[in-house]
Design a protein that fits this description.
116 residues; alpha+beta; 15% strand; single chain; DUF6233
Length: 116
């Protein structure tokens, strides 16, 4: 049991002790954060990238959002569109006259449309 005759530390000393305890606690929290971040980064590096779609249909801008171009899945010049199947790309190329095949990735060559 504390001796009631001993004076307590001053308010400033008490606050300095609390401040030091908070600094040490914060340092432990920061260390845990860095460990968790490192583990998450390692998991992200090990996670395989998703396979790109085999085919991609790019849509125009505007209210109608009609098909504009078709691409192979590996083509990286557009992000505006949706993944598609081979059949849907063939159908779009055959039925929509304004749709063009990407001149960079040449999906029409891979589809065999130029061989005819």
């Amino acid at each position: 049991m504390p001796d009631p005759l001993l004076p307590l530390p001053s308010a400033l000393d008490q606050l300095l002790v609390i401040r030091r305890w908070l600094e040490l606690t914060l340092a432990r929290v920061d260390e845990k954060i860095s460990v968790v971040r490192a583990a998450e980064e390692e998991r992200a590096r090990r996670r395989p990238l998703p396979e790109p779609p085999a085919w991609w249909i790019e849509y125009g801008i505007g209210a109608t959002r009609r098909p504009d171009r078709v691409h192979t899945g590996a083509c990286g010049i557009t992000s505006r569109g949706r993944s598609a199947t081979r059949e849907s790309v063939l159908e779009v190329l055959r039925t929509v006259p304004s749709v063009i095949a990407c001149p960079l990735c040449r999906p029409d060559s891979e589809l065999g449309l130029l061989d005819r």
